[in-house]
Amino acid sequence: MIKVLWIAGTPCSSINRYGVVKPAEGWIASLEAELHKRTDIQLSVAYTSEIKEEPFDYESVHYYPLYMPKGGKIRRWLSNFDKTIGEKRAKPLLRRLINECHPDTIHVHGTEGWKGRIIEMIEGVPVVFSIQGMIAPYCQKYFAGIPKHDAFRLDPLLDRILGFGIRTTWKSFQYRGEREINYIKNNTYVFGRTFWDYDCTLAINPNRQYYIVNEILRPIFYEKQWKGYIEKSGKYTVQIISTVSGGIYKGLETLLKAAYILTSFSQLNFEWHVVGYSDSTKWVAMAEKLTKIKSSNVHVIYHGRLQSDDLCNMLVNSDIYVHVSHIENSPNSVCEAMLLGMPIIASFTGGTASLLTHEKEGVLYQDGDPYVLAGAILDFIQHPKKAIEYGSAARKRAVLRHNKEKIVSEVVSGYMKIIEDFKYSRNIK
Questions:
Q1: Which of 248, 271, 363, 395 is the most exposed place for a label (fewest CB within 10 A)?
Q2: Helical H segments across 23-65, by residue range
């Protein structure tokens, strides 16, 4: 039996022991739910917790809560400006974890956080990083949609004072990017899934070993399927939908510009629904000021964050899914839309071309180009049969890529190869 320790930013399925109404979701929790069914894997999960508690077992998985209380207001305020404060508090927790847990391999989920520091503290155990996003390459596109001087100018004063300002988060991004480079440069093993993360990690560490491991999506998206209708009648209101979360490089200004073009130059009767942002979101106000486009004037409607069931229902009842980010690795929002079988238009950036093939399973457009985006939307409306065919092809590909048994096999195979390679490289019998 292989003993595997995960270091994650989530308590995974253990959150359900508190009797939450909504079970734990997300790709990490979904993978955990499948992986702990295996009899050849003994899984442990370490995660940060604001509640002080001892390690515990839940549904055959062992959990190590790493106690990180919020602290006082001053400490929390200072930590917004200095990300090393959290790291200094975390190091003793990681050392204690190493002393208590004796795994055959350690799996760090993501390269963005301080948890990767464990590679500096442990010897004799192989560590694998699974790539989610990559901060260092993201830095190159951080101000791709909103120029730096405009971002600083439009940033609310209160956010700057509280430590949530763009200048502060940009500096944090740079620091985390440098830290991430050190993780990849000084570690051998990587789980990835796109040509983009393959090339980025190779550029940083030509000697790294790369294993393809895809992601298990949220359960509801395996159960539902797009309704398969798309109309161009003037009486019918075309439903466009995008999920946008995060900050400045997520492309909301491109969305507004494309909506303005559709409103100004076409007769299309449409609504563009945005999930993830609300009307009061900072990024909405900033994009509107930059573009001088009022969302309500171009039929853009914000819904805030939604539970997966509500989001899925919106998607299957919409006509087109549009992804507008300036940089991504493999956005799960696109993968979920593919699994549903939707017609998809996505920015050709990062690893999206690894997800779908242009003019076969969807349409890829150059990020930040609102005219091509608007034209692609109209083309789908004018050629609904093509849109439906693309969505069907996307679903077929996604069903294969996100097959749960296949992904669990990829993960376990990766662990076994890593452990064997590590022993061979160290001459460990």
A1: 271
A2: 27-35
